[in-house]
Structure formats: structure tokens, C-alpha cells
Design brief:
Elements (H helix, E strand, L loop, with lengths): L3 H16 L3 H5 L2 E8 L7 E2 H14 L2 E14 L2 E12 L4 E14 L2 E13 L1
Parallel strand pairs: 1-6
Antiparallel strand pairs: 1-2, 3-4, 4-5, 5-6
Length: 124
């Protein structure tokens, strides 16, 4: 069972890595063989190399001025459900985007072994 303090630390690191656009930092909270499902109907990114490449292309190259607010966190054993709200400027679309997301995270020890995102966004 994952500890609430560890979950809060991991989610804080997730938020910092996103807002700081730091692909190296995001890897510190994932197991080396983790899966990251950004779009659950597509194949996930597998392992550190693919997760880092996704963050480099999506977060570093496409986004800026990222604001993040954690709304809710639920823990059941090694499964965490986190809900957050984010706003960022999308460089590719030249639009400000508002995003509301629920992520299901499976923990292995004190790191994420699986992340599945469910989100909706709107252009502002």
C-alpha cells in the first residue's frame, strides 16, 4: 500500500517537472519499465526512453507558461486517482489550452509503474 505522503511527493514532482518542462525530473518518479498512457486508446509509452521522448516533444517543444493545480487525490492500495486542472500555451496551435484531467497511477514501491490519463481540453 502506497503511503499518502509519498503520493503527495510524487504528484508534487510531477507538477514541478511539467511546469519546469524537465524530462529528466519526470523520470525520477517512474519505474524504469513504467508505462505512460497519454491516450488510452493508443499504445502507451514504455520505459524511461519513450517517456522522456514523449515529454521532450509534447511538454518541452509544444507547451509553455504551464500552470498546474491538483484538485483531488484518492488512494486504494497501490492505486492512486489524481484529478488536476492545468492551463498552458500550446506552441503548435498558438492557443492557450485549459485541461481537466484524471490520472490513474499504479505504484510499485515509491514510484509510478503505470499512468493512464483521461482528459478533456478547451481552447481559451
Amino acid at each position: 500500500m502506497v503511503d499518502r505522503n509519498k503520493v503527495e511527493t510524487v504528484l508534487r514532482t510531477y507538477a514541478e517537472a511539467w511546469m519546469e518542462q524537465d524530462p529528466e525530473k519526470i523520470l525520477t518518479i517512474f519505474t524504469s519499465d513504467a508505462t505512460y498512457h497519454e491516450r488510452v486508446l493508443k499504445e502507451p509509452f514504455r520505459g524511461h526512453a519513450e517517456i522522456k521522448q514523449y515529454w521532450q516533444s509534447k511538454v518541452v517543444e509544444e507547451q509553455k507558461d504551464i500552470k498546474f493545480k491538483l484538485l483531488n487525490t484518492y488512494i486504494d492500495g497501490d492505486t492512486v486517482i489524481a484529478e488536476w486542472d492545468a492551463v498552458f500555451f500550446n506552441n503548435a496551435e498558438q492557443q492557450t489550452i485549459h485541461l481537466r484531467e484524471v490520472a490513474i497511477l499504479e505504484f510499485q514501491g515509491d514510484k509510478i509503474s503505470s499512468l493512464r490519463e483521461y482528459w478533456h481540453s478547451e481552447r481559451l
